[in-house]
Each structure stands twice: as structure tokens, then as C-alpha cells.
Design a protein that fits this description.
Blueprint lengths: L2 H15 L3 E2 H8 L3 H18 L3 E6 L2 E6 L4 H8 L9 H13 L2 E2 H8 L4 H9 L3 E6 L7 E5 L1 H6 L16 H22 L1
Antiparallel strand pairs: 1-3, 2-3, 4-6, 5-6
Amino acid sequence: MNKQQTIAALEAVLFASGDPISIDRLSQTFEIKPEEIEKYIKELEKRYDEQGSGFYVVRLENTYQLVTREDYAPYIKTAFDIKRRTPLSPAALEVLAVIAYNQPVTRAFIEQVRGVDCSGVVSTLIEKGLIEERGRLELPGRPLLYGTTKTFLRSFSLNDLSDLPPLPKDNPEVNDIGEQLQISEEEMTNEEVS
């Protein structure tokens, strides 16, 4: 296959996948190095930009996905009669922020930061696919750990978690709480070990 055919085939694979596909999988599929895949994806992105296409390629950690441009969402919703999703509540955004910046975390950690029960909010975020269970903590009761998903990254236009804006450092209360929570979890882990 020549270069243009490879780019066209890459576009077809991204389109047919629907979900994010890893660069390693693409590399194996086309039997070329990951660096070449990245080069071809950049050329595909350039072509979409030059043509004013309704598509673009988004990178999510080490995966790529072909998506539609946000400008055309109203037409897609109308064509497929998609109901407008209800926006996240302030409580859901708070819980999501606690998880995103501290993951993986337990529900007890989230509740300690927020000071209120958050089981309903956590369930809602799981249903929306923004967070997921990430195993269990090796402590009495084996509490569930939660972390964000690729849907979270895609929804907030982030490539990976390093793209999250930095937390303000000038708020001593926030920093004190974070330090206290880290210390208390370390103490609990140390008690479990001894």
C-alpha cells in the first residue's frame, strides 16, 4: 500500500471502530511503527482541517478516535432524535473533580472532602460513563476505588489527566484537607500492614 492508501485505510479503521483504538493496535494492523501511525494521523487531521470536514481525530491517552465536530451536534441530535442530556449538577461536578484530581479514590474519601453523602452522585456518574470502579482498597471492608474513564476525557476535551488545570495553591484550606486525607489513608495502610 502506498502512503495515501494507508491514510485512507487508517481513516476507515477509525471510522468503523467507533470507540477509541490504541496506537499499538493500529501499528499491528498496518504493520508499521507507532511513529508512522502518528504521522499519518497528523496528515489525516490536516486534511480534515483544510477541507472543513465534519470530522476530526481526537487523542485520548494512547488511543485515537474519529469524532464529529461539536459545531454539527445540533444536526446530529435532530437527525437521530437524540434527547438532550441533562447537565451535571454542581454536586456531580464537585465529585467528578475530587475523583479526577485524586484517583483512584474511595467513596469515603470523596465524602470526607465534600462533607456529605455522595452515593447517589457516584451512581449517576457511573451511569453516565464518566467514572468507573477501579478495584478495591486493601483495607477492612475492601472499599471500592473509583477513577475517571475515557468518556470523561472525551467529554471535557482532554488528551489525558495531565491536561487538567492545576489546582489553586493559594487556598490553605484545600491544601490542608488534601494533606490530611493523604496522611490518614497512609496511616490506615500502615496499620493494615503492621
